[in-house]
Amino acid sequence: MAKVELKQPVVAEISELLDGAQTAVLVDYRGLTVEQDTILRKQLREAGVTYKVYKNTMIRFAAKGTAFEALTPNLEGPTALAVSKTDATAPARIIANFAKTAPQLEIKAGVVEDTYYDAKGMQVIATIPSREELLGKLLGSIQSPITNLARVLNQIAEAKA
After folding, report:
1. Are 38 and 68 in contact (CB under 8 A)?
2. For 83-141, how does the pLDDT look when each residue is reduced to its tens digit (9 = 90+)?
3. CA 85, CA 18: separation in Å to the nearest integer?
């Protein structure tokens, strides 16, 4: 079997992974221990993020003609790909948090909702809370005045009784 025929399924797998993805983050994982890598993979999996190590040339072929093609200049050295189809900030947020305990882990670059960001831009995106957290804060801010109004009306009713 020719080498090209062996590589086509891998390129197809990456293409399928990137198809419909909100975010793709390139990660330099050099220096991580097996234990650290296992913990990171578990955290990413629980958040619905696909994390896998691919050859740079395979990622290049799969990204050609997509918004993820902007990542091509960053495809040097060992590269892992973290992809999320549901939460745009999850890969960057989880990897950045994990990098606090494992400083050798680095975000190289990423594409979030069809926009390319370098390592510094991805660090900023990592600070954005998840959709659920933002919705919770919004609900809390909407609920707070209503709760206060109900409390005041209750106190007025008790004062008149």
Report:
1. no
2. 998 888 888 899 988 888 888 888 999 988 888 989 888 888 787 776 677 777 777 77
3. 8
Paired with 50 in beta bridges are 83
CA pair distance 89, 25, nearest whole angstrom: 10
What's the predicted TM-score (pTM) here? 0.75
One-letter identity of residue 26: L
- The string over 15-41, giving b where at least 16 C-beta atoms fall within 10 Å of a residue's C-beta and e elsewhere, is bebbeebbbbbbbbbeebeeebbeebe
DSSP type of residue 47: T
The dihedral through the CA atoms of 42, 48, 53, 7 has a sign that is positive
72, 24 in Cβ contact below 8 A?
Answer: no
